[in-house]
Design goal:
Oligomer: single chain
Distance between the termini: 75 Å
Strand content: 25-35%
Strand order of the largest sheet: 1-2-3-4-5
Keywords: Cell projection, Cilium, Flagellum, Repeat
Shape: extended
Subcellular location: Cell projection, Cilium, Flagellum
Protein name: MORN repeat-containing protein 5
Radius of gyration: 20 Å
Pfam family, one: MORN
InterPro entries: MORN (IPR003409), Morn5 (IPR042814)
Structural class: mainly beta
Length: 158
């Protein structure tokens, strides 16, 4: 690989840009299967500087990152398009949110089944087996594919 070209990874990620001696070298862009991209300048396979852009167009800025800080927890689409009326919560940055299979969690790069401890991508292709730490994190923080009653529940008389 020498000069300008394209390299396709088995994961679906694609690199378009300059190469030297079989490595990324010069200007190039990594395009990820989820629609995000990283535009950067590379030297002997190492990115020296660049910019990451999420699939929805949000650009990451490590110096002035104002999105989802401790004071403003809105999704990027809410910042761009405004908040929904009261009672219509936005559950994810994706509108409408993905349907999660019953008994599973949406862990960001796919669905997690806590019974089998397997993560599959959004096309239901195997990604990985979750270890104990990942299992605990997903169960604690990720969106579920089922409803639960939370909060105060009065005792029912028999």
């Amino acid at each position: 690989m020498e000069g300008k070209g394209t390299y396709n990874f088995p994961t679906g990620t694609r690199y378009d840009g300059e190469m030297k001696d079989g490595t990324f070298h010069g200007k190039g862009t990594l395009f990820f299967p989820n629609g995000s991209k990283y535009e950067g300048e590379w030297e002997n396979g190492i990115a020296n500087k660049g910019k990451y852009t999420f699939a929805d167009g949000l650009e990451y800025d490590d110096e002035e990152w104002l999105y989802c800080d401790g004071y403003d927890r809105r999704f990027y689409t809410e910042i761009c398009n405004g908040l929904k009326p009261a009672g219509r919560s936005q559950l994810t940055n994706r509108v409408p949110p993905r349907e999660i299979p019953e008994g599973c969690y949406d862990c960001g790069d796919g669905f997690y089944n806590p019974k089998t401890r397997v993560v599959v991508d959004y096309n239901h292709k195997f990604l990985r087996n979750a270890d104990d730490d990942e299992h605990d994190w997903i169960v604690k923080t990720c969106r579920k594919g089922w409803d639960e009653i939370v909060g105060y529940q009065p005792k029912m008389d028999a």
